[in-house]
Amino acid sequence: MANKHGDFIWYELITNNTDLAQSFYGNVLNWEFNDSGQAEMDYTIITAKASADIGGMLQITPEMKAGGAQPIWLGYIAADDVDACIERIITAGGTEIMPATDIPDIGRIAMVSDPQGALFYIMRGLSDEASLAFAADHPRDGHCAWNELMSSNPAGARSFYGKEFGWIKDGEMDMGPMGTYEFLRHDHMIGAIMPSPEAMSRPMWNFYFRVADIDIAVEKVKAAGGTILTGPDPIPGDEYTIQGLDPQGAVFSLVGQRKAGT
User: Fold this and answer.
1) At which of 63, 92, 125 does a domain end?
2) Rounded to two decimals, what is the model's pTM?
3) 172-211: per-residue pLDDT in tens?
4) pLDDT tens digits, residue range 215-261?
5) Residue 67 to residue 216: CA distance in whole angstroms
6) Virtual CA dihedral for 252, 3, 107, 248, nearest 10 degrees?
7) 36: in domain
8) Cα(243)–Cα(208) distance, rounded to whole angstroms?
9) E strand residue ranges, 79-141
């Protein structure tokens, strides 16, 4: 069964150095990497070990860098009609960043931003097989487990994504001075919206990838040249999260249990 409009279906790292990024994330998340075989693009496929393809890596070109591109993780959201979706996004105050493009044997994609400036892709795939990149049904190591939007206007963002993709609010959590953490549902829980931290330069999506043991993952991040920004922090379900920077400066997050007892 194909993914429906509004599902997260793919995750992409735009980075200054795909070789170094592969070394880092391979150590931390046990990912495997393969060339996409696209002659016109240097694109690397990310595979959660012994599981499924969950995303890709794209090297920042000189042209992209001249346009202001920096290392970042971006999510792909399924769209029934990419071109019609772009029109509605622009009408709602969003922006077209990369025009709709056909990728041979893959589908049609475009990069856009929401009205507050958070970047994401929309995509209509050619395959009728549902993506497993976001593990919504049950926990899968190496897959994305949570999609978190840090926005300068959470209420406006919730309205925007709700109207376009059918996401609904399903509860909230008081974070004190940090504001309210609003949970999002799209048939199943997909993530949350929260106010952007004051130090953040622009609104952005933040993705949590699942690891088997959060403490072991923290040590791997440090050993591989990454930086821990926050955590491990406890969350409901006897799990812990960390937020970090990879060696090229892209923000990433991890979630997992504390099995080592530290």
Assistant:
1) 125
2) 0.95
3) 999 888 889 999 999 999 999 999 987 677 899 999 999 9
4) 999 999 999 999 999 999 999 889 999 999 999 999 999 999 998 65
5) 38
6) 0
7) yes
8) 8
9) 95-103, 107-113, 119-125
Read off the tokens for 100.
Answer: 């709709």
Q: Are residues 119 and 12 in the same domain?
A: yes
Domain span at 205: 144-256
CA distance 97 to 171: 32
Residue in this structure with the two tokens 């909230």, named with its chain if needed: 172
Unique residue bearing structure tokens 């931290």: 197
C-alpha R_g of the chain = 17
250 and 155, same domain (yes or no): yes
Helix (H) or strand (E) holding 89: helix 82-91
For the stretch 119-159, pLDDT in tens is 999 999 998 788 889 987 788 999 999 999 999 999 999 99
* Three-class secondary structure of residue 21 per DSSP: helix
Instruction: Kindly report the CATH number assigned to the domain that includes residue 226.
Output: 3.10.180.10
What is the spatial order of strands in the sheet that 107-113 belongs to? 31-35, 43-48, 53-59, 8-15, 72-78, 119-125, 107-113, 95-103
| DSSP code per residue over 217-251 | HHHHHHHTT-EEEEEEEEETTTEEEEEEE-TTS-E
Q: How far apart are CA 74 and CA 40, in angstroms?
A: 21
pLDDT of 42 > 90? The answer is: no
Q: Can you give the pLDDT at residue 201?
A: 74
Amino acid (1-letter code) at residue 39: A
